[in-house]
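This entry is listed as follows:

___
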Amino acid sequence: MLTRILGAVILFIVLAATALASWYFRPWSDYSPARVAEAFDPDNIIDVSLGMFGYFPYADVSTASSTALPRALTDLRVSYEFEGETRSLESYLAESQSLGLVVLHDGVVVHERYLNGADEFSRPTSWSVAKSFVASLIAIAMQEGRIENLDQLAQEFAPQFEGSDFGNTSLRHLLMMSTGIDFIEDYNDTDSDIGVLFRDPFVFGSDIDAALLAFERDTEAGTQLDYISSATHVLSAVLRGIYNQPLHRIVEEKIWQQLGMEGDAYWNQNVMGEEGVALGYCCLNARPVDYARFGQWYLQDGVWEGERLLPEGWVEMATTANAPFQEADATYPLRGYGLHFWFPETDRGEYFAAGIYGQYIWVDPSRNIVISRFAADPQWGARTAETFAAFRAIAAEVAGE
């Protein structure tokens, strides 16, 4: 009798282990928890940055009639002073594991370089640079009259958030990253709120919107800067509600095809197919030259080929502080925050979109320059000050200063 019980227990353990292994590795699927785990391996950072489609589900963003930006390519021999040393652009790009660098001057591509296995057709991921695309879509909806003002609540457009603290937050405070909602954004802890919000949709195909319903406000909205990716995801849900389309279709129609991007892109989402929900706070993947075109659009005050796509005054409002706590150094060192755009602690009027691991779209209006730099840099945060110095040196060189 004991032998039979023991045999049954062993059989159960074997079957359970087999089922668990099958679920973890999912040999029938291109995506699995095992593959997601590989994406978090620091040794894979370059491969992941250049090939998110191989690790996570996605949806295509197609260009229609693409138009190449004019090109007058030149070499860049750039050096700059940083912390008492003379540094070179080449050493900076190598040490920061850069993947692509595109520089526009007066709307012309004057420099284009790819490194670490990337080429002109590569589509490096944007991480949080995608947030600036979502904010721009909100602005487009305003220009089209679909949003009356930024003080409307998210739940007016995304009823799935009705009654939740996120739903009861204004579009303005979501854009300002001043929701007052208790959400832990710790990229070094995979079990923090952002770690779970990133991991679970891919592992379980879970409902990203539903995952945010339980979060509560612990500080009055509009009183402090608290950068949380969940705020942008709620804005992406607002867009889905306004246009009754998935996010990748909205960005395809309103930005990708409108600006005539040179290449197709894709946006990672919880499952493959039109029913999937994009991670609205990250994971747009595109060519560096197309990220640069996005920056050029902002440099032109939201006007493209003579058509105003963004409301008058939006670019200034989005790229400067809207409250004292957003000023440079008030909350984060070396930079301040507007409406899903950052700006450095200078009076030159520069601003930028940024993402973890060194993703940047840098705009210098005084010199009419846009710099698109994408990287896989684990030390991106510590390198912030040098990154600003390198970008300013590039801009000065290109502008002939």
Q: What stands out?
A: Residues 127 and 282 are 5 Å apart (CA to CA). The first helix runs from residue 2 to 25. The longest strand covers residues 98-105. The domain at 49-149+246-398 is CATH 3.40.710.10 (Beta-lactamase).
